[in-house]
Inverse folding.
């Protein structure tokens, strides 16, 4: 039984059963919101400071010791700014877009297991829930572009839809490889099945899921949707005040969600020696975020044609090969030694990554196969 379920059963001793369900649910929701907001603050601060180090500059250093209050200053500025809606824009679509964009980032955490039994609801189809919920944010981005009645915003929104559809396919296929090895769609059972972290058993799937997730959440070098050098500032151009702040927070919310999902599917979740399980979970999440940050600080942006070619001509074929490879191993060699799978899968991953990177470079971003 989950921790929330135990808390609910304890509340039943003091109140009606229906009230116990509501109170336990609300406590779980508040805990998740608090965790997400605190981690977003940590992510933003770390990103600003570390990118400053990567780019040999100071980063935020005025508001508070080492600039720790810079985000508070930015929040006050956004809250006091005038909320502007375009005169010919759709008011309700423009108003609801930031909410629709940010809400899925919170809803994903309903099935993320932070520790054994510490999960809001342990669904048997947890991965399907994550895939379904995370794709809703694209609707919010399109609403932002449409409701603004601005052609540049609309172009950026259409790019977001194309990018999300393109990278969703290899990401889901990489997740199917995890499902085949674990034999379950439940995120908790997937973590428990990782006596050896799955990124060692299927490194190619981990590589695809990591890069595909990075593209889906618009992290550089895949952030053409809101790159100032591309189309002004993208789908959020006509937003100001806290609406803009909510769109800004949604990017980090989805980054946190992606880090947690990668940790759960490939890095063994809360499992680890010596340290408390929840601390292991946080360490792995921060490690994944550091990889996102490292790539953003060092890799230049792709062109739009390179962005789409990378999804359809690089990640998708590799995802299909990975799925066939894992499926064959599970079907024909179910009792194979883990080190044997590791050697074969690492060799295949290395060959494919080198081959496709070479083709991608020779084709100038248009992979010639």
């Amino acid at each position: 039984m989950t921790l929330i379920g135990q808390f609910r059963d304890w509340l039943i001793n003091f109140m009606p059963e229906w009230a116990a369900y509501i109170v336990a649910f609300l406590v779980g929701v508040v805990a998740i919101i608090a965790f997400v907001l605190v981690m977003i603050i940590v992510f933003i601060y770390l990103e600003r400071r570390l990118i400053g180090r990567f780019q040999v500059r100071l980063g935020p250093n005025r508001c508070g010791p080492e600039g720790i209050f810079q985000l508070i200053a930015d929040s006050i500025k956004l809250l006091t700014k005038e909320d502007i809606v375009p005169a010919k824009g759709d008011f309700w679509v423009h108003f609801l877009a930031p909410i629709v964009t940010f809400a899925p980032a919170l809803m994903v955490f309903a099935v993320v297991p932070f520790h054994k039994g510490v999960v809001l609801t342990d669904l048997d189809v947890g991965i399907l829930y994550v895939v379904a919920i995370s794709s809703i944010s694209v609707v919010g981005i399109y609403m932002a572009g449409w409701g603004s009645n601005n052609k540049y915003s609309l172009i950026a929104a259409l790019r977001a839809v194309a990018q999300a559809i393109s990278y969703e396919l290899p990401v889901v296929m990489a997740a199917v490889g995890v499902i085949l090895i674990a034999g379950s769609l439940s995120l908790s059972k997937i973590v428990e099945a990782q006596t050896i972290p799955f990124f060692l058993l299927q490194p190619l799937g981990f590589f695809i899921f990591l890069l595909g997730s990075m593209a889906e959440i618009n992290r550089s070098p895949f952030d053409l949707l809101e790159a100032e050098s591309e189309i002004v500032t993208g789908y959020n151009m006509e937003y100001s005040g806290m609406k803009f702040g909510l769109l800004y927070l949604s990017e980090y919310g989805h980054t946190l969600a992606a880090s947690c999902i990668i940790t759960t599917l490939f890095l063994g979740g809360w499992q680890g020696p010596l340290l408390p399980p929840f601390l292991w979970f946080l360490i792995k999440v921060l490690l994944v975020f550091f990889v996102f940050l490292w790539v953003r600080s060092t890799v230049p942006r792709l062109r739009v044609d390179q962005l789409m070619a990378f999804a359809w001509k690089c990640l998708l074929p590799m995802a299909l090969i990975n799925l066939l490879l894992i499926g064959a191993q599970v079907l024909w060699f179910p009792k194979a030694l883990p080190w044997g799978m590791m050697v074969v899968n690492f060799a295949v991953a290395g060959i494919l990554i080198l081959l496709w990177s070479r083709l991608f470079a020779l084709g100038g971003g248009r992979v010639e196969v």
Summary: The longest helix spans residues 17-54. The chain has 15 helices and no strands. Residues 79 and 242 are 5 Å apart (CA to CA). The chain has a mean pLDDT of 84.
